[in-house]
Fold this sequence. Notes:
- The protein has 429 residues and is α+β, with helices and mostly antiparallel strands.
- 52% of the residues lie in helices and 9% in strands.
- It has helices at residues 49-71, 75-88, 95-108, 115-126, 138-147, 152-168, 179-187, 193-213, 241-251, 256-265, 270-274, 307-313, 329-340, 348-361, 364-371, 375-382, 388-394, 401-404, 414-428, and strands spanning 9-12, 17-25, 28-37, 40-46, 281-282, 287-290, 301-304.
- The chain is elongated.
- Mean pLDDT is 81; it is low at 407-414.
Amino acid sequence: MRARKPTPVTVSNDQHEIKIYTSESHGNPLFQLSYYRGGKRERRSFADLNEAKREARIILGDLARDSIQAENLSAAEIESYTVARRALAPHSTPVHVAAEVFAAAREQLPASASIHDAVRYFLQFNRGVERREMRDLVEEYLTARRSSGVSEPYIRLMRRNVTRFATFTKGRMLPDLRARDLDDCLQQTGLAPLTKNGIRDHIFTFCRWAIGRGYLPRGWREFEESVTYHVPPEDVTIFTPDEMERLLKTSGGHLATPFLAIGAFAGLRSAEIERLDWKNVSFERGYIEVRAETCKTRARRLVPITDNLRAWLKPFAMPVGPVVPYRGIANVHARLAVRAGVEWKKNALRHSFVSYRLAQTHDPARTALEAGHDQTILFRHYREVVTPELAAKWFAIMPPLEFARGIIGIGRAPRDAYKSRREKVVSAR
């Protein structure tokens, strides 16, 4: 036989009444008040019946006071109430609910702003925006970047930086994020200022994409107020001509020789040399072609092959194939430097090229173009002041005569030794 529901308890003040219904929640009794205020049904739940009755009596007192105030309304107040009900009728909203919502909104707005200002702002910046978490958009964003031709190493860097911020803001919608969120994320990383600025730039790029996809409103510029970190100037370290000559002669017929020569006398970035193919080294035209897809700035450029660079590369040159056919080149450089009795200096090959090339040409625009940078960055990060005499000595570093004749070390031509080692490396990969 089906159990009957308990009869509700009624609390009344002759004008109004509140019913207290009894139910269960997770095996415990639950007492729910049910009453009407302003024509709208309201409910309150309590775990104790006596507490529910006390709250019911308080509510009855409020309702009685409301009734007394209603009876004492002036004609103007009654007219205002009637107009308000008529305006709210299409929205099926009671007058008291509209008043409560207005009061809550008014408290959150500055005195100079109106409710209409808030509505206009919302419509301007949120209309048609699909509200999503940043972490749910990372893969879609990276797919879009990959399809635009961005290199895989750059994709990996962007994934790391964007995911870092997406994880930090987990659980929040992208349009709700503010500049302080980005600042807080970057400050807790403990990274260097230059790295923080790089992450910030990647987040800006993500946001521009999100605006185009409708995940952020048009004109959204919240992160522009975030902190830009000051990058202190770094000491530019370069090799002397004597140090470079010792490094190259020590490398002999090693796989690292083309890398060292191209870095020192053409100024390519390490990543650009590692992606360079022999088919892009044209001795006939006298240029190394740095293709857009292999360089950091995504801009194709031609770098002249100097006479001494030609002499160092010729014994190794092949029709096609990677100039550096293996990874871990940094470890090779460290070992070579020890053998040559030279301290290995980070980024010194590129720094040296820019410094000596500028002293040789006296042409900042030309040097910046060959290095793949604008002049501001070139002067800020890559240049050390050297004399034209030292520059002439740098670009006069030539291989020994026996190197050019193919008689070096074990008696084999450098190209044969290079080719043999390269084939072993490639077959072992």
